[in-house]
Design brief:
Elements (H helix, E strand, L loop, with lengths): L9 H21 L3 H13 L3 H51 L8 E9 L9 E4 L11 E5 L2 E9 L4 E5 L7 E5 L5 E8 L5 E9 L9 E4 L11 E8 L9 E8 L8 E6 L4
Antiparallel strand pairs: 1-2, 1-12, 2-5, 3-4, 3-12, 4-5, 6-7, 6-9, 7-8, 8-11, 9-10, 10-11
């Protein structure tokens, strides 16, 4: 009988044998039931493929760390620019007060806080964890934001951790004022038909004129958010505006969306 491997180089015979084994295993696996296939799959993943799976997970973790580092560096640069700008404004304010003979104001202070977005159950998560707590000098509830705008509110604090909500949370509310006008109202999240979240400024007096593109900032009422913190920009009148009543509503483009930042400033109230 003629040997199919006779006359072939040794490496070719080895390849033929390996291919025959692989085909045989494939035929056997294809005939197994689904539970049996799952058992075999778990066994292979836990033995032969374990080093490769571990290497892949390590690569993903390192890639995530590089992305997080780049994001933190960007946020640090933005915060540095904000600090420089605020320092110049503070110096100018001090000179004006000195010229007018007005006593120096006791400035509010802020703490740098790192946020960790919560794990969503259905859809996007509206909550976050805080890697700081009461031991850092924080008191809840307290608003958090960046120089770009409001991010959310810290609801509760432990010694070294905390829990809070982004502005997209259904229970979020903040007193607001439209810069350059006497228009005031309440801002909350608005889930649009497109699926994205915008803000809704409601309760604005009917006689107050609000133009598209106007900046909306916090009013400071309630003691949770500092006055003047940017919230967003008026995009358009809301279709739900109560034009026949005593108030109007406006859609507001948020200054900061959840997920755009992990480093924020938490307001430390100055009661002095």
């Amino acid at each position: 009988m003629h040997d199919i491997g006779k006359g072939r180089p040794r490496h070719q015979r080895r390849d033929l044998i390996f291919a025959a084994v692989v085909v045989s295993i494939s035929v056997v696996l294809s005939s197994l039931s689904i539970p049996s296939k799952m058992v075999v799959t778990r066994a292979i993943r836990g033995s032969v493929l374990a080093p490769f799976i571990s290497l892949h997970q390590t690569w993903q973790e390192r890639a995530g760390l590089r992305e997080r580092l780049a994001r933190l560096q960007t946020e640090r640069n933005e915060l540095s620019l904000s600090v420089i700008t605020q320092a110049a404004l503070a110096a100018e304010n001090e000179r004006l007060r000195s010229t007018l003979g007005v006593p120096a104001a006791i400035p509010d202070t802020f703490l740098v806080v790192e946020l960790v977005p919560g794990r969503p159950i259905i859809g996007d998560s509206h909550s976050f964890l805080v890697r700081s707590g009461r031991d850092s000098g924080l008191e809840a509830p307290v608003g958090v934001g960046t120089w770009k705008g409001l991010v959310g509110v810290i609801r509760s604090l432990e010694a070294n951790s905390g829990y809070g909500d982004f502005w997209t949370h259904p229970d979020f509310r903040v007193g607001a004022v439209v810069e350059g006008t006497d228009a005031t109202g309440i801002v909350r999240a608005q889930h649009m038909e497109t699926g994205e979240f915008m803000m809704l400024l409601e309760g604005v007096p009917f006689q107050s004129a609000v133009a598209d593109g106007s900046d909306v900032v916090t009013s400071g009422e309630g003691g949770i958010y500092p006055a003047g913190l940017r919230i967003g920009t008026v995009a358009a009148p809301a279709e739900t505006a109560t034009k026949s009543g005593w108030s109007r509503s406006y859609i507001v483009e948020p200054g900061v969306r959840p997920g755009q930042t992990t480093v924020v400033l938490a307001w430390v109230r100055n009661d002095g």
